[in-house]
Write a structure and sequence with these properties.
With 356 residues, this protein is α/β, with parallel strands linked by helices. It is 41% helix and 12% strand. The structure holds zinc ion (ZN).
Length: 356
């Protein structure tokens, strides 16, 4: 009797062996996609500590040495938990030496300031124009030296190309991202002289094909969370193609969870946990911004909703970024070994840190 009672207490306390729940514990997570202001160190640390984020990739490391210095100081302030990525400067793109100069700067940021990658914003393909006012394509040959340099250095290229499909459609109340477009009217491409989303993604595919020795991380779920079939085809075609899930759990949570679980399981070695957390001088951004400034409690909830999506089998709950659309999402409940890779091990491999 006493032994039974002790066993019952043990099971209640430990909770796992008899209930069938798994003994897996979430590892220290790496968030592979954030935008961090060097002046916000204390707030960033608080957010990371509270949600169990061990390392975070700051994709806004800057283009110039004075910015690299600040980004490096932020990393030092947080005991190396912030990993910075270089961002090119497009101003001199008409200079015939631009590509080589950019490659040289990336090299310096990596070797002298501890940077660990290159970030390309969606401006490429959508906003960056040369002196003749022609949009610079994602696969413009002027960028080849930069892609090659990333490969030579062994650092990944996080690349944002295009945007949600809804941004190409009229900003009318039936647009599924109407609210977000109301707050950010300039995000709409409807009627603008820009390429279609398909054309932009084709440009990206040509770059990935042309630089097989460079690792590309197509952010925001391969830049096409509405079409997992496209993302799967890219992952099948190119071994040097990875994706992150930043700010797109709302989108991918709409698809059939069994189908998404199959995708995550099949490509478990090339998918990275990421959120698009932004911490600035004046406020924070949780995947997108609305009219109200989010609090640190909101940031904790934001991460918790991600854990819920990846770890449980819950159905029809509110997604992490309500302004990105009014629908509910279904969780994928990934197995522990897949979660360990997506949360941590794949990132360690790309950042060349420790055994994975
Ligand atoms: Zn971002």
């Amino acid at each position: 009797m006493v032994r039974l009672l002790l066993a019952a207490i043990f099971v209640t306390l430990v909770g796992l062996p008899l209930t069938g729940a798994r003994a897996w514990e979430r590892p220290k997570v790496i968030d592979f996609h954030a935008h961090l202001d060097p002046s916000a160190g204390a707030r960033i640390k608080g957010i990371l500590d509270r949600s169990g984020i061990e390392l975070i990739v700051n994709l806004s490391g800057g283009s110039f040495p004075w910015e690299w210095k600040e980004a490096q100081a932020l990393s030092t302030e947080l005991g190396g938990r912030v990993i910075n990525f270089y961002t090119p400067d497009w101003d001199e793109i008409d200079d015939p030496a631009w590509g080589l100069a950019e490659a040289f700067r990336l090299d310096a940021a990596v070797k002298r300031f501890g940077f660990a990658g290159l970030k390309i914003a969606k401006a490429l393909g959508l906003y960056v124009r040369d002196a003749a006012q022609v949009l610079v394509d994602v696969d413009d040959p002027r960028l080849d030296p930069l892609w090659a340099k990333a490969g030579e250095l062994g650092v990944p290229v996080c690349i944002h190309v295009g945007d949600p499909k809804a941004f190409w459609r009229p900003s009318t109340p039936d647009n599924e991202r109407y609210e977000e477009l109301q707050v950010h009217p300039r995000w709409s491409f409807y009627g603008e002289p820009v390429p279609s989303q398909e054309a932009l993604l084709d440009q990206l595919a040509r770059v990935v094909a042309r630089h097989p020795l460079t690792t590309f991380v197509a952010v925001h779920f391969g830049n096409d969370p509405e079409d997992p079939g496209y993302v799967e085809r890219m992952l099948e075609r190119f071994p040097n193609y990875f994706i992150d899930v930043a700010a797109r759990v709302p989108e991918i949570g709409r698809h059939d969870p069994a189908r998404m679980r199959a995708l995550f399981t099949r490509f478990q070695d090339r998918i990275l946990f990421a959120t698009d957390l932004g911490v600035g001088r004046y406020g924070i951004m949780l995947g997108s911004t609305g009219t109200d400034a989010p609090t640190d409690d909101d940031a904790a909830r934001f991460y918790a909703t991600h854990w819920r999506y990846f770890e449980t089998h819950d159905r029809q709950f509110e997604h992490p970024t309500p302004i990105q659309g009014k629908w509910k999402i279904d969780a994928v409940g990934l197995p522990p070994e897949v979660l360990d890779k997506i949360y941590r091990k794949n990132a360690l491999k790309l950042l060349r840190r420790g055994p994975a």
